[in-house]
Amino acid sequence: MKSPLTTLSLIAAMISSPAVADDKLIQGLIGGMIGAAIANQGNAQANQGSRQNNGKKRKNNGSSDGISAKKREKNIEAQEALNYFGFDVGEPDGVMGRNSRTAISQLQACIGRPITGELDSFVRQFLKNSYFKAQAGGAETLRTVASKPNGYCGLLQQYHQELFAPAQPAVMAQAAPQPQVAPAEVAPATTVAVVEEPVAETANEATNSSTTVVVFDENLQTKYDLLLNQLKLLEQIQKHIALKATDESSARKLATVDQRLTELRSLIQTVEIETEGEYGTPIRPTNANLGVTAAKASEVFPRVPYYIPGTEEIGELWIKPHVTNEGILMYDFNFVAAQSDFDKIKDTIEMTSENVRSVSEALVKVTEWSDKALSQGLRRHYEKSAICFPMAMCGKTEAGNNSAEVIFVVYEDGSTAARLQENKGKFRSGYNVSIESGLLLAAYMDYMAEIGEKEFEANTMTDTDLDALFED
Known about the structure:
The protein is an alpha+beta fold. It has helices at 4-16, 23-39, 69-84, 98-111, 121-137, 139-146, 151-164, 203-206, 218-242, 248-279, 294-299, 353-375, 435-459, 463-469; strands spanning 171-173, 190-196, 211-217, 305-307, 314-323, 329-337, 345-351, 382-389, 402-410, 416-424, 427-433.
């Protein structure tokens, strides 16, 4: 029986071979193979031949004692993703036993990370994002895998390279008597630094002297700066929550922000290590004086992802404060299409400061409901509204009635999510976020509401207000 990787390699060979003339036959074979792969993509492709013929999956070794419901849920997500990419853990059960540790080691070896058998924050997030991206790709993902000599590992390596956008290698050029770098030879998105070796004292030494031309990738610099911007903003959000962390909801938000900070710091460190190997020096940040005003925070918002159920569409959430022509502080809750520069807004829900805070509380409530659903082992489709505004228009489907709400959703496989939905008469547009993303979004909303209100109050104070502020 051929392994999935052999089959996928065969597909790639058939596609590229000029000796095969029957296109319909090829299309039929490829369609059948891809269909079979889709039907079985949840299994572990790389180790499928070693399983027992009765089709039963192995169980992970290890005990489930002491594992919280939240931790178990995250572990199951990771195990399902590992199985998908061919790193066989057996039946996902939330227990990181021997099989899981072996699979994690194989993943780490594939993408060139230190082999520990444990999921650090970066590898866990990379695995989660790659799993979502690969599933969203559908048949195109399978075609990409078929073109890779090492199958799914090759796909992960491609995702890893795309994530970091590696810079071009340094170029070594022998010096001419008067070395020059012609502008036409330099790519538009690069910066060239010329480092000259000491001048040789003799003619013989002169033949060994050289000029090193180091090509820097400004796109990588831009991404690095963006990471630092997000880090600084999240640190501000962290301080904001920590000062007011007096209840369980604040503690939940703080834990989520702390986790994202750990992931960002790990990612930044990885980029720095990469650039040290590429250039001999780390990339230097250009944003040392980054402000954290409401406007600047709006520009460097933390990446909170959303997805549209039943489609391949994903994007990010961006909250932008603004003052209307009537002098009222409002917040545009923007749904930005993926890979945009804040100019491809798919949808917008306008909110008051009160709405922003209410939605934040509703997202925390959804997290609590999710914990209950998981503890009860709920596996059926269920929806419940956590908040809807304005109340006068909620539940009405007549044209001209617009409302927005946060909905808690449970799916048949037991997974949970929060849906941000806008109701326009009978039309519904919904955007889902994971429970974890919902908590990060709640923290982001609290922070934006507070700094937006402070700036608004500071700019609308009368002379009387100022006189009272500066009384002796």
